[in-house]
């Protein structure tokens, strides 16, 4: 019997291992559409900086990377890259690159590694979801969570091939942090707390979203204390995690002492102190009479509160704690950035999430999420309470900021895994039991089965002949089962495991059971179908190459960047809106004024002032910045809506936040509308952005005998726009990218 049990366990382990391998392959393969449809290319904007930084790390070494001063960005200020970047993703890609070369693959380019880094980690995220789901609920829930996580569109949006962005690897670390901490709470193991802290270190090194983790875990600890679920295991887990995690995170230069001085992390420090005070009080309570305890404890608390109050007063007076981050304010108050920090509000990822995005990025998980939450709350344990807190806060924050859909996606997958596991387990158990009984007692297919708390079933068609001694025996067995179930439920509550033992019995027919299984299979099939569709058509298109419905491509961006790299001096400076800074540096290898780092609001405001000023004033600003070329994006000819004119209000608002003379209403119509038609304001028509966009546009006849802006649906200006201080240098094939040279005055001025 022992050998048979061992063989069964080994078989189960092999099946689990094989299943996880298949899930990993599915997660990796589903993210390769961009490589198949296009080529091996870096996507979007931020990944181009990460790729450029990885090249510096790989080619010049770690010390060169740490000391790298990038003089080709934020001209003339420059940027100290080593101390202003999360280096985790660069080091990860560099490690993979060197490992492959050490294994005998010298022909692999660093770009190929960067392109495939996120798909590699997507499989690891699925494995982490399996571990977390198994720890929080059951192995079935973990398996479903792994399948769902592997292809959930909300996570796939930042983990497709070519999406070399921080979130592609940070989400993996996030799930591992919660798994390690959850297991530490269940076992009281310092080892798992330390492993969770190491995973937290990796997340800190890759993404600023680590602030979510360092606040969710303290909130969970406080919820545990409020619910009276304190244990020494919780104390060991949090104390170890906070101390090690904080010390390790301080090793990241971009974080440093901000790990304890940042206001966003004060909650974790406060909970750490309160937890120790709570444990100290419990220890005193066990040593002395109640009256003496309250006297001593009250005095101790009074002294500590006074000391903390004095310390906080000094800290805030001396600015020991850094200021709140604007994005953190935005999460707490969604209107804050719109009112006070327009540079944050101008980023599309920082906008509130549209309802449609939930259905596109989560699909059926929107409906399974509350079901899984119900089952977890029905049998709350020390461990699954962490999953509940994580899921609830992730759901709220995702509505405030669309970027945090990435955080919600794994939580939704885990909740859906619990829901599907419960539904399929109960239905499958019912079907198997009734099929097993049918040949023996002749019960019909419409017979019912009672699902007991221990997952077993009993036919409701038992005849009266099964009475007497057999009935008494069944009662005794039922009594023992009830006691067993009660004991197992108690054990589950203390250990953190949840299972079917905590469910109440109910009756289902065979037809209902089969229907539930078919529905679950159909839902999973449609979910997979939707995810693959989203991966293929929405998240696998690089922003630098645009595919049309007829299969043709617009490659204007690379055409323009290549022209810059071949036809301009290597030291020339290009002015553009900050969206295109990383691509200009990465593909054209030219000096930029601003880029996607957005660390200097006044510098970005200066660029915005240049674009919204009249031509003469804009030329003066450009000359002060030593600009050689101005690049703008114009989609009016072909209907590309993500051009600079459509986002022109943001340069106006950002420059207005620094220069009070810039007023948004001056660029609006008399009715307060933003229009490029005949009713457009004179201030707008005279702006550099307007003039460079529509220069020579009336020569194009894209709508019969007229030139029509296909994005704004207005006719081109009737009068010819003449430029005195700028001259056209290059216009791409579809007019998407237009580059102008800043004219230098000659002996007679501008002629």
TrEMBL record:
User: Could you tell me which residue ranges the Oligosaccharyl transferase STT3 N-terminal domain spans?
Assistant: 20-414
Entry membrane topology: Multi-pass membrane protein
**Looking at the record's lineage, which domain of life comes first?**
Eukaryota
Any idea where the STT3/PglB/AglB core domain is?
571-630
GO annotations of cellular component type:
endomembrane system; membrane
Skewed-composition ranges (Polar residues): 457-466
Q: Where is this region: Disordered?
A: 439-468
Q: Where in the cell is it found?
A: Endomembrane system
Q: Does the keyword Cytoplasm apply?
A: no
Give one GO term, molecular function aspect: metal ion binding
**What family name appears in the similarity comment?**
Belongs to the STT3 family.
The protein here is known as dolichyl-diphosphooligosaccharide--protein glycotransferase
Species source reads Porphyridium purpureum
The uppermost taxa in this organism's lineage are:
Eukaryota, Rhodophyta, Bangiophyceae, Porphyridiales, Porphyridiaceae
């Amino acid at each position: 019997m022992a050998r048979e049990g061992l063989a069964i366990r080994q078989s189960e382990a092999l099946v689990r291992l094989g299943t996880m391998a298949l899930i990993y392959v599915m997660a990796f393969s589903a993210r390769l559409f961009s490589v198949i449809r296009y080529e091996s290319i870096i996507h979007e904007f931020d990944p181009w900086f990460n790729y450029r930084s990885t090249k510096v790390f790989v080619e010049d070494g770690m010390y060169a990377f740490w000391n790298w001063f990038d003089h080709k960005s934020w001209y003339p200020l420059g940027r100290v890259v080593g101390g202003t970047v999360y280096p985790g993703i660069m080091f990860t890609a560099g490690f993979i690159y060197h490992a492959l070369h050490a294994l005998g693959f010298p022909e692999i380019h660093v770009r190929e590694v960067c392109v495939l880094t996120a798909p590699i980690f997507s499989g690891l995220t699925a494995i982490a979801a399996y571990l977390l789901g198994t720890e929080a609920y059951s192995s079935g829930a973990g398996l479903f969570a792994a399948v769902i996580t592997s292809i959930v569109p909300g996570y796939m949006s930042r983990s497709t091939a070519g999406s070399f962005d921080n979130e592609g690897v940070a989400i993996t670390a996030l799930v591992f942090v919660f798994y390690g901490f959850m297991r530490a709470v269940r076992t009281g193991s310092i080892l798992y707390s330390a492993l969770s802290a190491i995973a937290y270190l990796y997340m800190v090194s890759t993404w600023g979203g680590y602030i979510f983790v360092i606040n969710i875990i303290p909130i969970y600890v406080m919820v545990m204390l409020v619910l009276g679920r304190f244990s020494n295991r919780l104390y060991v887990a949090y104390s170890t995690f906070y101390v090690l995690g904080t010390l390790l995170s301080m090793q990241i230069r971009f974080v440093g002492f901000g790990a304890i001085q940042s206001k966003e992390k004060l909650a974790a420090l406060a909970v750490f102190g309160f937890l120790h005070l709570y444990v100290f009080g419990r220890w005193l309570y066990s040593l002395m009479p109640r009256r003496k305890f309250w006297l001593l404890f009250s005095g101790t608390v009074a002294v500590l509160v006074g000391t903390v109050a004095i310390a906080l007063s000094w800290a805030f007076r001396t600015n020991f704690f850094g200021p709140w981050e604007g994005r953190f304010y935005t999460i707490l108050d969604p209107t804050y950035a719109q009112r006070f920090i327009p540079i944050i509000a101008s980023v599309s990822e920082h906008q509130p999430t549209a309802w449609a995005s939930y259905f596109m990025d989560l699909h059926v998980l929107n409906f399974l999420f509350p079901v899984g939450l119900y089952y977890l709350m029905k049998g709350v344990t020390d461990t699954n309470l962490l999953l509940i807190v994580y899921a609830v806060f992730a759901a709220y924050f995702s509505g405030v900021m669309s970027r945090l859909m990435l955080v919600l996606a794994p939580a939704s997958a885990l909740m859906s895994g619990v829901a599907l596991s419960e539904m399929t387990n109960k239905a499958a158990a019912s079907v198997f039991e009734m099929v097993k009984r049918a040949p023996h007692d002749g019960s019909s297919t419409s017979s019912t089965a009672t699902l007991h708390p221990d997952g077993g079933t009993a036919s409701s068609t038992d005849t009266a002949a099964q009475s007497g001694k057999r009935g008494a025996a069944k009662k005794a067995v039922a009594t023992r089962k009830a006691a067993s179930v009660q004991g197992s439920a108690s054990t589950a509550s203390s250990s953190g495991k949840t299972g079917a033992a905590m469910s109440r019995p109910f009756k289902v027919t065979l037809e209902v059971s089969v229907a539930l299984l078919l529905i679950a299979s159909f839902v999973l099939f449609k979910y997979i179908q939707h995810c693959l569709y989203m991966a293929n058509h929405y998240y696998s298109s690089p922003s630098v190459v645009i595919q049309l419905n007829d299969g043709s491509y617009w490659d204007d961006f690379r055409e323009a960047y290549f022209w810059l790299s071949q036809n301009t001096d290597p030291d020339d400076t290009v002015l553009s809106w900050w969206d295109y800074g990383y691509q200009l540096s990465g593909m054209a290898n030219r000096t930029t004024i601003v880029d996607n780092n957005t660390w200097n609001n006044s510098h970005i405001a200066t660029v915005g002032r240049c674009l919204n000023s009249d031509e003469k004033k804009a030329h003066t600003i450009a000359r002060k910045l030593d600009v050689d070329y101005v690049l703008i994006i114009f989609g009016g000819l072909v209907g590309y809506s993500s051009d600079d004119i459509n986002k022109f209000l943001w340069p106006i608002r950002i420059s207005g936040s620094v220069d009070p003379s810039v007023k948004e209403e001056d660029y609006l119509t008399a009715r307060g509308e933003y229009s490029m038609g005949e009713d457009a304001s004179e201030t707008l028509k005279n702006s550099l952005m307007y003039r460079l966009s529509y220069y020579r546009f009336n020569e194009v006849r894209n709508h019969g005998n007229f030139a029509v802006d296909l994005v704004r649906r207005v006719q081109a200006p009737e009068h010819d726009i003449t430029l005195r201080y700028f001259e056209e240098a290059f216009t791409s094939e579809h007019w998407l990218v237009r580059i102008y040279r800043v004219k230098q005055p000659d002996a007679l001025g501008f002629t």
